[in-house]
Specification:
The complex is a heterotetramer, with two copies of chain A and two copies of chain B. Chain A is α/β, with parallel strands linked by helices. Chain A has two domains: 110 residues, 3-Layer(aba) Sandwich (Rossmann fold), CATH 3.40.50; 147 residues, Rossmann fold. Chain A is 33% helix and 22% strand. In chain A, the strands form two sheets. A seven-stranded mixed beta sheet of chain A has the order 3-4-2-1-5-6-7, sandwiched between helices. The longest helix of chain A is centred in the first third of the chain and has 13 residues. Chain A is globular, with a radius of gyration of 18 Å. Chain B is of the alpha+beta class. Chain B has three domains: 72 residues, Dna Ligase, domain 1 (2-Layer Sandwich); 127 residues, D-amino Acid Aminotransferase, Chain A, domain 1 (2-Layer Sandwich); 153 residues, Succinyl-CoA synthetase domains (Rossmann fold, 3-Layer(aba) Sandwich). Classes of the chains: A alpha/beta, B alpha+beta. Chains in contact: A-B, A-C, B-D, C-D. At the A-B interface, helix 4 and helix 5 of A face helix 4 and helix 9 of B.
Chain lengths: 285, 385, 385, 285
């Protein structure tokens, strides 16, 4: 079953009793995700949407055999929630939370390298395997099954593009939002590698932004190691230098990270780059 | 969040970095008094977050308190790089042997803090990186271990700092790192760090940018926020948690999510000629309620340059009906007659479109696609121009 | 280095751990005054580093200041577990609902700090580990990350701490960890941490042991060192950097290196009957100079129980000729006639043996092997006995 | 060439200009060790025993191709020296320094796990491959080549026992002092594993002490995985409980770590345990 998840994926929701956690738990269950429980410290013993709530991730893992977690806890506690999931040996951790201080994330980034956990996010919409599994907040109806893998730094722009594909009759193997923060657990190259190895994925759509050099790294990887065609869109073509556009990640730093630089690197790697996201379906054919 | 030089300087001093005994002033009279205290000969530095202030008239030298007062009088209230100068820092003059650059920032490539130093201090480091990249040395700091002596010594050796300054340089670098970490900074910079002719190391300029996401745990720093130079609209946006940046054009743009907001602007640039452009970047964020939408629309409409409004919402956490509710609310309040092009997709988009159609407002157009929305907004703007 | 309870308590309070408002006293009169200040009813606690002070008469309760003075009078200067009581801590009495154990120590197995808690506080944790091991919960702390909330909550949940105390428990545990790290402690212990009948969490006992190797960077803590109960010889050894522990027997033992020193003692136990044993453990360390050797020998000879001296030196960094020089120096000073069995091997052993032979002292015997040296020393001790 | 080192081992001395560093550098060179340089911050450009001195380990590595380091710097700076060696990708780091604070060592222990460096020590005499290489402070003449591997937590006691072997005509493949501190980079099991795999080593002598449970772990390893005969001596049989005998590591903690417990575990693993170190040669035959 596509990348990152399989039929054995058993998900817990950290922050399940919160407003967002509870709402999206219902959405994920409805979509077919195997949610086995949730965690809210001090609320162990309660039930949310017929799923048991535990005080700690370890207790949830012990009781449910969970191997994946999604985090909806507020920014001030999100780093702690990630550590808790890592140390309970959760293999896949998706962190939706926006606004985690960068120093906290740098610590986590360093630490998680030496564990068997993979972090998606933070500040991301999570992932969606059309008609099968949803771990995150992407609206389910925007996607249909197919053979295009989608990976994106953006949130709603991802929905926009996935929906464009769907409306053009182009289905997806998986849609992965890696998050727009300067420090994230999983980057373009990680997901591109998965798509390259995934037998169901035939083509890939990559959605980038101004700031940082992760799209340039992706271009290098594509040039070196990818056999499947990639179509890209990079947002922020007209953003003035140095202006911070909402995302902590979307800053043009020290003259690098411009959209032009990224587009050039991608084109040199053989990637078709769309100037309008609504043109992506054409470029895929 | 950018701190002013005088605020950064105070913070640096707290962490043991040697700084000059200057003070901040907001009136020429205060400048006179401070100059007198400092012995007469002073440097007056405009408190605005711009590199190379020296070259653009932001740093002035006075021989005596009276001259200082006069210079301050011309500087205070004037505009440099589009920023009004409301405060100046008054420092004693010193005699300099060498200028060094010393900075700490978060490096995105390694996801680690990075120590940067150059023997060519006193200029914008981006400029130095362009003109003499070989003078710049970097080392990443493992956040689990922190800065280590050998890293500092290695940098000191690389920038050819004479041996006798290593010990002090070590202390200053540790202080800078401690300040960087304790302040949740994204940048902490001493430029220049000078060697004086009497053989002291001294931070002559101080710059500290704090991670906005971490301000919740630094109430002392958050209180230093100075909305000098912030427009009323920017202040309103900040208070409502809306990302808002003024641009040069006529089309007010609003979207949910930074990527989508940037793309919306990109679409205008893509399909418009040079005479038409976005009036702003505006991201209402995820899961916005109707009142946030109303506030956002109000902010845009208050801008006299805005001739057309383009709303691009893809519902996810954000519900389109909430957005429609906010739009109608704002239109009801402002009674605007400007053309509004609205593109709604995603969660509850149908309900939203029905609400808008029901309101029967002649200046509202709903479109299905982003391309169509952008073209429509451009056409409207062109019609008005 | 062990801190006294009152010192640990002050340190804990600095880090925000809630403690009782008691004070330390060294005279009955002071105890009277403190008891009056505290309202009359008090607990008097002997300041000696012994577990289970309560069971062995080290903690006494007084109904009023006069009784407190009388109890202090009997306690101060008395001996418990071989330790003279020179100070007492006077605390107000409180009403307790539950006693918890909370400790932080360095775990050798994981090479990490370990958080330990038990619902059964107030007793020696080693005893609790024996009698109800199921009540004890542990978690190791990654030193690169530090203590995390979830670890504390997990422990709180495991020891069945009611929910309403979690927040305070979290704060106390963080304070304890911060104190542990900032003090370079090897143990930081609150036993008991009590829940009072008026629903407060309070540290009733405080214990802090500092890593001797880290004292160089904690001059404030190093100054707290209290040589109460330390003999003159122990103090001399400490000052000279010599490891010295008094034992019960008659054979003064000296060696270079802890392993060799232990082995030397082991040899005496191996070959002697119960009537003969080592008088001390003494390690002169690595690379000792002659004056250290002389000091070490002087310390041993000052002990009236010592009837025979056994020196076992295997030269490595330590040079045997330096040792011989120190021996001759000490013998010259002390003019002792006690039998000395000397075993020298390794670096410059030949030179050393020549020096000793040249001195022609009748009470000195050189042996080649450790076994021989031990047997010879035992035989001498038996002859004297 | 035995364990831990080979013909390509190129050693630098951190703290080469100090009293101990300089003295032992001469000794090591004399013994045949391939010393390629040294490091003392601020003294780059000087020469000690005809070896170049550098300001940083990285510069020493760049100039000399060093792949091993020995550290003689004072305790307050030793942790930094270890990090410097690790981050310059030194493969074998031997730290002689005594008195490093345990919290510093816990940090290093955690960090070094995820690198390719091996740390021996601190507070150890280093290692000796008889008549070939000496990285440390063991007196060279105490050892002769042979087929017995020696591993020890102790310092001078190791010399004692190695010398006893030598005098009995029993030579050694390698003598390794792992150090007596509570937190050390390489433990008994690590070295026993090397001896088990080393074709030249036929028998092993292990020298332990009271305190900790590293000898018990070693016993478990020997029982499970060792085919070569092991003889052991454990110092501190008569040490009273709780009394600290010189070493930070030699404390009997919480009722574990007694010599009796260790001897029992070792004997159950088939190890011959000597009660007198001078009897070890007999037990080896």
């Amino acid at each position: 079953m596509s990348i990152l998840v399989d039929n054995d994926t058993r998900l817990i929701v950290q922050g399940i009793t919160g407003r967002e956690g509870s709402f999206h738990t219902a959405q994920m269950i409805e979509y077919g995700t195997h949610v086995v429980g949730g965690v809210t410290p001090g609320k162990g013993g309660e039930w949310v949407h017929s799923k048991p709530v535990f005080d700690t991730v370890q207790k949830a893992v012990d009781a449910t055999g969970a191997n994946a977690s999604i985090i909806y806890v507020p920014a001030a506690h999100a780093a702690d929630a990630i550590y808790e999931a890592i140390n309970a040996q959760i293999g896949l951790i998706v962190c939706i939370t926006e606004g985690i201080p960068i120093q906290d994330m740098m610590h986590i980034y360093e630490y998680i390298q030496y564990t068997n956990s993979r972090l998606i996010g933070p500040n991301c919409p999570g992932l969606l395997i059309p008609n099968q599994v949803k771990i995150g907040i992407m609206p389910g109806y925007i996607a249909i099954p197919g053979n295009v893998g989608v990976v994106s730094r953006s949130g709603t722009l991802t929905y926009e593009i996935v929906y464009t594909l769907t409306q053009a009759g182009i289905g997806q193997t998986a849609c992965v939002g890696i998050g727009g923060d300067p420090v994230i657990g999983t980057d373009f190259v990680d997901v591109l590698k998965m798509f390259e190895e995934d037998p169901e994925t035939e083509k890939v759509v990559m959605i980038g932004e101004i700031g940082g050099r992760t799209e340039v790294d992706a271009a290098e990887f594509i040039k070196r190691s990818m056999t499947k065609p990639v179509v890209a869109f990079i947002a922020g073509n007209s953003a003035p230098a140095g202006i911070r556009m909402g995302h902590a990640g979307a800053i043009i730093e020290n003259g690098t990270g411009t959209v032009q630089e990224k587009i050039q690197a991608l084109q040199e790697a053989g990637v078709r780059v769309a100037s309008n996201p609504e043109n992506i379906p054409e470029l895929l054919s | 969040m950018n701190l002013h030089e005088y605020q950064s300087k105070a913070r640096f001093a707290e962490f043991g970095i040697p700084v000059l005994p200057g003070k901040v002033a907001s009136t020429p009279q205060q400048v006179y008094e401070i100059a007198r205290e400092l012995g007469g000969k002073v440097v007056i530095k405009a408190q605005i977050p711009t590199p190379n202030r020296g070259q653009i008239g932001g740093i002035l030298f006075a021989e005596n308190p009276k001259q200082a007062e006069n210079l301050a009088n011309s500087l205070l209230g004037s505009v440099i790089s589009g920023l009004i100068i409301r405060k100046v820092l008054v420092n004693p003059t010193i005699s300099i042997r060498q200028e060094i650059y010393l900075g700490m920032m978060n490096d995105r490539t390694s996801s680690k803090p990075m120590l940067i130093a150059s023997s060519e201090g006193g200029r914008d480091i981006i400029e130095v990186a362009r003109t003499s990249p070989g003078s710049i040395f970097r080392d990443t700091i493992n956040p689990c271990i922190g800065l280590r002596d050998y890293q500092v010594r290695s940098i000191a050796s690389n920038i050819d700092l004479p041996n006798e300054y290593w010990k002090t340089f070590l202390q200053i670098t540790y202080s800078l790192y401690a300040c960087f970490v304790a302040s949740d900074a994204v940048l902490a910079e001493i430029n220049p760090l000078v060697i004086t002719t009497d053989n002291r190391l001294l931070a002559l300029d101080s710059k500290l940018i704090i991670d906005d996401n971490a301000l919740y745990r630094h109430t002392d720093l958050a209180e230093m926020y100075d909305n000098d130079g912030e427009s009323e609209q920017e202040a309103r946006a900040r208070a409502a948690g809306i990302s808002y940046v003024r641009l040069e054009g006529q089309i007010g743009c609003m979207a949910n999510g930074a990527g989508l907001a940037m793309t919306t602007i990109d679409m205008i640039h893509l399909y418009a000629d040079e005479s038409i452009g976005p009036a702003n970047f505006l991201d209402i964020g995820g899961g916005a309620q109707s009142n946030t939408v109303a506030t956002a629309l109000g902010i845009m409409l208050a801008d006299p340059h805005v001739k057309v409004v383009l709303l691009n919402i893809f519902g996810g956490i954000t519900r389109c009906d909430e957005v429609a509710d906010g739009i109608l609310q704002a239109l009801d309040e402002t009674k605007t007659t400007l053309p509004l092009v609205i593109r709604l997709a995603g969660t509850n988009a149908n309900e939203a479109r029905q609400m808008i159609n029901r309101a029967q407002l002649p200046n509202l157009t709903c479109t299905a696609s982003l391309t169509e929305a952008a073209r429509q907004a451009i056409a409207s703007a062109r019609g008005i121009n």
